[in-house]
From TrEMBL:
This is Prefoldin subunit 5. The lineage of its organism: Eukaryota, Sar, Stramenopiles, Ochrophyta, Bacillariophyta. It comes from the Eukaryota. The keyword Coiled coil applies. It holds the Pfam family Prefoldin.
Length: 167
């Protein structure tokens, strides 16, 4: 039987040598992996959308924006009203709870670098999703072959039993 490590680490194993029960277990593991990958992909796409929205908002800031009323995000769903005091200085979160002051152009460069990383990770996850789907297809085909094999064996046993009973 393929160990849990074989399935989770992507080790290759011969599906034809696995029992129907082992194939079903591998299928469940791959389905769980696919679900986790799909969830992670959605999170990355949401992050990319936030980065793009932030970049677009920063592009609208100009020196004449000073004193303009703005809504400042405190969390993803809570905003507070404020006024833009110095449009050429932005506070940028560079990590959990760490902020630096940057110019709008520097902030956009920072956001674009982060967006490239998110896009690269999304691309890697897309490839992993495709590979996992291929694994699931292979497992399903192998399971189908095993079931046909089992039915044929049972049918052969019935024919032999019927032939012996008619003697």
């Amino acid at each position: 039987m393929a160990s849990d490590d074989d399935v989770t680490t992507g080790n290759v194993f011969d599906l034809d040598k696995l029992s129907l029960e082992e194939l079903n277990q591998a299928k469940q593991q791959e389905e769980g992996r696919l679900q986790a990958l799909t969830s992670r992909y959605a999170q990355l796409r949401a992050a990319a959308a936030r980065l793009t929205a932030s970049s677009n908002a920063i592009s609208e800031i100009s020196p004449s924006s000073e004193g303009k009323e703005v809504m400042i995000p405190l969390t993803e769903s809570v905003y507070a009203p404020g006024k833009l005091r110095e449009p050429n200085k932005l506070l940028v979160e560079i990590g959990t709870g760490f902020y630096v002051e940057k110019k709008p152009s520097e902030t956009n460069e920072f956001l674009n670098r982060k967006l490239k990383i998110v896009d690269a990770n999304s691309e890697n996850i897309t490839k992993a999703v495709q590979a996992t789907r291929q694994n699931l297809d292979s497992i399903a085909m192998s399971m189908q072959g095993k079931m046909i094999e089992i039915r044929a064996r049972q049918e052969g046993q019935r024919h032999r039993a019927a032939a012996e009973g008619s003697k």
